[in-house]
Every structure is written in C-alpha cells, then in structure tokens.
Amino acid sequence: MNTHASVVVIGGGVMGTSIAYHLAAAGVRDVLLVERDELAAGSTSKAAGGVRAQFSDELNIQLGARSLETFGRFEEETGYDIGLHRVGYLFLLSTPEEVASFEAGVRLQNALGVPSRMIDPAEARRLSPLIRTDGLLAAAFSPDDGHCTPEAVVHGYAAAARRYGARILRHTAVTGIERQGATITAVQTTLGRVTTDTVVCAAGAWSRAVGAMAGVELPVQPLRRQIAVTEPVPGLPPDLPMTIDFTSSLYFHSEGPGLLVGMSDPDERPGFATDTHDRWIPRLAAAMERRAPALLDLRRTGGWAGLYEVTPDHNALIGEASSVSRFLYATGFSGHGFLQGPAVGEVVRDLILGRVPFVDVTPLSADRFAADAPRPEVNRV
C-alpha cells in the first residue's frame, strides 16, 4: 500500500465518494478514500432516494438546488444512469401552522430560484391520486424535485474518482488518527499506517467515533428508520410525486411497479441497530388510513432499516475543526445527506483548496452548539 496520501476521506457513501471525486477532478493528487465495508453499504444504500430543494433553511435550499443540477447531468458526466425521476415533491399540510411555515419556505425558495408553489387540496389529489383530502388545508409542490437510485450515484462517483487518480480502499477500517499537537500526521488503518496532514470525516452515523480519534466532538447520533416496499400497484401514475403527509411524516413514491413507503417512528431510540421490526406498523397503518387509505390494501413484499445521522438541531455539520488543523467533516445530515451529496462534495473540495465555496457553510460548523447557535431545519421527515 502507498503509505502517503494528500487527503484521506473516511467513509464510502455518497458524501465520501462525492468529496473524493471533486478533489481528484480538481487535480488533487494522492486522494485516498477508506471504507470499512463495501461502497454505499452504510446509510446511503438504505436511503429513500429523494432529491429536493424544498427546505426551510437557506443553506439547505442552496445545497439541494445545486445538487439537483448535478443529478440532472450525472449520467453525462460520469456515464452512470442513476434512475432520476423528476416527478416533484408534494408536502401535504393539515394545520394552519404548517401552512404558514411552508408559505414562508416557498417565498424563500422562490427568491433563490426554486420553482416551488403552494397548491390547494384538489390539485394535490390530481398530482397524487392515492391520497384523500379530508382535513387537508393546502400543499407545497416543486416539480424539479424527485428521486433516484443512491447506490448508482455512489458507484458513479467512485468510478469517476478512480479515473482521475483517486484510490479507494474497501474493507479497510480506520483505527486511529495521529497528531502532533494540533496537526494531523497520519491515519492508522487495518491495512497499515497512512501519512497525511488532511482528513475528511464523511462517516455518517459513525462520525462521532471518527471525530473522537482526532479529538474533535461531532454531535451525531444514529437513529434507525424503516422503509417498506409494496406489491405492484395497478394504474400507478408514471409521474407520481414523492408524497409526504407532513403531520404524520408518512411518505411514499414509486419503486418499480410498486411503492416505497416510510415514516418516522417517535418510539425509536438512538443506537446502531438496523434489524427490521413491526412495532412501527400500527402507527404507519393509522397514518395511511387518515391520509392514503388505498395503501392499506397493498401487500408488503420487502423493506429494510437504515440509520439517520442526527444532530441536536437536525441540520448538517460541515466545516473544518477549530481545534485540529485540516480535520474536515461533512456529516449529521439528519435524513437529507444523500440529496445534498453532490453540492457538499464541491464545498469540501473548496475548503480544502482554500477556495471560496459557492455557499458559506460557516453556520453549519460543529462549533455552533458550543456557541449556543443552533440552526434548525423544519422541513424534515
């Protein structure tokens, strides 16, 4: 093994492969990505695949919109078909507070170039005919949003990164990070020691432990989320949007001839468990009965569990550690990491190269919690 790297990226999901690709494409030599399992084996492969710019936080809107642009030309740039479906995101709103919040969000999104709009319940049902509109006050819709295949994005980035000279080590765990004072000097792995002065933590739900190796506090907790896949649905509209009942967090989108269905579970407690269970099904069924009763008749044919990487304000951690030189991080996305992967790869590349990124991510520094300056994201599922 070459025992030196200019940059070591830890984590082989969408965030790590995007960062490695953007660095290598910018001409950075000796970029090394280290993944303890297979590429995309962590949270990325378990994501629902939604891509959007409908957020309440200005930074998230910009990161989402920039990533949507990249997803739109991904196959042209990398040669990988990511199964992009630009069918839109539809948020169903049932309380005056939700409506007011999304109206403010749409105004901000429009000011930043996102073509989202508020619509009435009748139009929402035309877009997503599986829903019922009882108790629905309004909805928010953006046609540029949609969904694609997370694993294809990871493998596309990885292949392109290799073409530009990056090295990728799979089945290689990071066991330690060496420092002299505040300066990183090496990364220890199960394949040996790699000298470097720059490390990027893109380890998702496992980032707290990676940060601790360098003496950096990354307040990330793993939280299990589950997804179900249904049998084929006759007459399913080909342009069915990603539909989210915001009050209950129930969501669904097309998955082949059937549906992918998910929902948050308030009874889940932080931890690394990724086995599936049925304790969430009664709450899921109640949400379906209220907002999409047609889903109750569908048979489950599969499903899985994965990990969200959650921060105290449900917003990302992006930046460089203040206490350790050249330890950067991109983690804690709390459910919207996959969709922001392309843009965050650009940002981290620029931070490493001393460039000014297209968006100022200073407010997403991990130091914001010590400074009592959280930055909450409202539009999350």
Automatic annotation (TrEMBL):
Secretion signal span = none
Which keywords are on file for this protein? Oxidoreductase
| Entries under InterPro entries matching the protein | FAD-dep_OxRdtase, FAD/NAD-bd_sf
Q: Which residues form the FAD dependent oxidoreductase domain?
A: 7-351
The cross-references to Pfam families, in alphabetical order and at most eight, read: DAO (PF01266)
What would you give as a GO molecular function for this chain, any one?
Answer: oxidoreductase activity
Any one GO CC term of the record? cytoplasm
What Gene3D superfamilies does the entry give?
A: D-Amino Acid Oxidase, subunit A, domain 2 (3.30.9.10), FAD/NAD(P)-binding domain (3.50.50.60)
Descriptive protein name: FAD-binding oxidoreductase
